[in-house]
Amino acid sequence: MSRLFGVLMAVSVLAGCMQQQVGQPSMWYAANQAVPPTATKLVVCHGFGCARRTSVSLSPKNLEKLRAILVRGRSSPEAERRAIGKAVAWMERTVAPTVGSEGDIGGLDIWNSGVAGQMDCIDESTNTTSYLLLAEKRGFLKHHTVQRPVARGFFLDGRYPHATAVISEAETGERFAVDSWRKANGELPIIMPLQTWFDEKPSV
């Protein structure tokens, strides 16, 4: 019974993604009882729906590594998006020993709802946003700003509810999804134009 309850709770949380609208990242954190990052500290969500929150402090060495990854993308917006993907993957690997998320698998995994270290779309989009906001606070991003996560799908349209982190290209205003949910811990997230992401019709 407890396992079934966990699955139902996971579905409920994911459906709740659809209540999230475009706006400031702070609104997303408030809606999901998550904690925004500072310039040196993260509170990583896991356990589905940010049910578990683990504080992670980044050392000067960690911060320099993050800067070094992102500075390689300063030549163009396209290069910075590639660097952002590498930075998000590196951050996932860096926080994993503290969070216990080394074994987090990608994609639909409602049977692991509530399990420490496992993440759903709320956790993933929140954490990716936190990693990027920290980078933004420290001046590591040149061509993009960090936006509030958004969501798509509501079962009736044949798609599973799903949220993603979002960045906006500074010069053009074009928004891009930074979707780490479909990948296992430490793998490169999927980065694509946000409208393309909205138009996708994956099986899950």
UniProtKB/TrEMBL annotation:
Origin: domain of life: Bacteria
Q: Which PROSITE patterns match?
A: PROKAR_LIPOPROTEIN
Please give the name of this protein.
Lipoprotein
The organism named in the record is Amorphus orientalis
